[in-house]
Amino acid sequence: MRKTLAVIKREYVEGVRGKAFIISTLLAPVFMAVLLVVPGLLFTLKTGGATRIAVVDQTGRLYAHVRESLMQGGDKDARATESAPVAGRMETSQQQQMEAAAALQTHFEIEQAPVGGSLAEIKKSLNERVLREELDAYLILPADILERGEAEFYARNTGDVFTSGMLESRISRAVIEQRMRDENIDQRRVAELSRQVRMETARVTKGGEERDSGGSGFFLAVGVGSFILIAILMYGQVILSAVVEEKTTRIVEVLFSSVRAFPLMVGKLVGVSLVALTQFAVWALMLLAVTLYGAGAAAMWGSEISLPTIPLLNFVYAILFFMLGFYVYATIYAVIGAIVTTEKEASQIIVTVSFLPVIGIYLAFPVIRSPNSDFSFWVSMIPLFSPITMLVRIVTETPPFWQIALSLAIGFATVVLMVWIAARIYRVGMLMYGKRATIPEIWRWVRQA
Amino acid sequence: MRCAPRGERVARRRPIIQPTDENGVTLQLENVTKRFDDFTAVSNLSLRVRAGRIFGLLGPNGAGKTTTIRMIVGIIAPDEGTVSLFGQPVGEMTRERTGYLPEERGLYKKMKVGEQLRFFGELKNLHPRRADEVIDRWLDKVKLSDWKNKRAGEMSKGMQQKIQFIVAVLHDPDLIILDEPFSGLDPVSTELLKGIVLELKAAGKTIIFSTHQMGVAEDICDDICLINRSRKLLEGSLREVKQSFGRNAVALRAEDAGEVLEDRRLVARVVPRGDFEEVLLADGADSQELLRRLVEHGVNVSKFERVEPSLHDIFIAKVGEDG
Questions:
Q1: Which chain A residue is nearest to residue B112, measuring alpha carbons?
Q2: Cβ–Cβ gap B108/A14 under 8 Å
Q3: A254–B contact, CB cutoff 8 A
Q4: Nearest-CA distance from B154 to chain A in Å?
Q5: What is d(CA A63, CA A42) in angstroms, rounded to the nearest whole number?
Q6: What's the mean per-residue pLDDT of chain A?
Q7: In this predicted structure, what is the pLDDT of residue B100?
Q8: What is the pTM of this model?
Q9: SS3 letters for A148-199?
């Protein structure tokens, strides 16, 4: 035990003190933030002056309204009529944000093109002005736009989908408003009447009705799944190199004259996972700080914040299954590390392994639709997938406790078995360095050792 | 903090076992065999290493030395036969009282020397409170005190080797196993470590010393065992081995000794060597008889010395015979 602690301590101290750890701990959040924010900013960023647009109004009465609508900005964009599915919610709001931001960045200079003469002549002269760069684009509102709902847009740059999208929605609005005015319909009344229905979701459980916004549990499960994936992508390699290290440096022989392979392997795994947990804890604290700050700021602006309500027990399960998932995959990496002689050799196998948690995340979708089916039961017993699938079952229709316990027990037994196998392979494999072991050889090592 | 005088035993919480069994034997191998697949690395080997002696485990490359050592330190288990240390089977207890410098050496490159030694000490149950003092003393002994807070990767190979030597001895083991400890060291460092090995012997430690450099073995070993192709060829004290090798030779420098040396009942062969001749006596002949005959013949003798076969000669002869 004392020796295992010594190994844990060494792995942890060396891991946490390394430059790589410090840099990645501090820089990763910055990097993430940059990745999230910058593309949005870049898309909305419109360099150069205002977009100059000429409007050819063949109806003779729309120009003023269209102009008003175009100059007004996007806050009244007709979004309310769209129905947003649960999973799509985030996307929609992101889209809205982006468009709102685009609106802030886009200025129009609108002018009315003379209507005299034939359409072909007007277009010809406007085309020339566009090519001379006196204009950026022009719009044609045909006489029958109110009936047919079609307008034409001509521009030098038609690739700017943000601007054309915005133009389309604002012209629509002007046209819709015009139609309503023509029919003597009160627009405010329409807005009032087309209010949407909101569904309150409650879960029926033995303990009564639980009110949570159904999606939050699902997000918890998929979130944990993604987190396992990220953790493994980041730390699988670290575990692998920790295991291979003594082999390539030949320290292993001194180690094995002092400590058995199993405690050594346990020490390494625990040491590295503590390094990982330290890093995640730092990030979690950073995230919490930012969230609190953000929430505080939002509260100051008077907006209402609704934090998802997740039962405490589910959090406990989430942590348990996250740990399980991490260790299941970590031990797979440890076994690979025990087999290979250098890290390079391992790279191909690693790609395959890091794919497995993705399968687990995909399996979450069939499971959420029928959490108590036989299929769901079995996939939530397989340790490779159970951290995600069982968690999905818990947050949807909580299965009987014995199933949760069984899933955890199978997972835990797998971890111990894998460490044991890794230790055996490691011990025998180190004595025959210089070549990669074949599968039958490995099997022999595991049996004999 | 008071410095404990050398030799003072570490207070251990576990029961103290005597450094030997009741017969003064530290290590005993009985009919030990180890096979790897079809290859037999060690075959029916029996050995006794007496306490407080330096035991040379000699043999050519691939003879089975390292495999034997790995069984002694408990890295691998023998297929047949028994290994006992301090009168006990190999296990957790014997591991802590054994220090091992393997031939394949390595250190954690990025770890500081002092921390590294502390870690290896902890693995051998060296008490953390004692560790600092012990580490400082050893670093001072091998003249590397300035390196305590530097990374091992910055050291030269020879320096690293000295650190690895410390790893083998810092927990004050009763049995120290050194596999080619001087290979690649400069003469000054070699002498330094040799001196330390002899000091350890004087402090009552048992040392197993594996090498194929016969010169070094001859310098410091009390007992030797020569193995070749997984089998033991000979064993015994250095003196016994040399005597039993049965080569009778005299280093002679003399003028006009021709006639005496041609007597085939007395002299088997004469081998010229630098400024003297090595005279190999015939079977049953006695060096005293040769000296008498030389004096009788009025030969002017300026050098007459009985020479023992060197370990080197024995090694070549025995291993050569064995094929």
A1: A14
A2: yes
A3: yes
A4: 15
A5: 32
A6: 79
A7: 92
A8: 0.72
A9: HCCCEEEECCCCCHHHHHHHHHHHHHHHHHHHHHHCCCCHHHHHHHCCCCCC
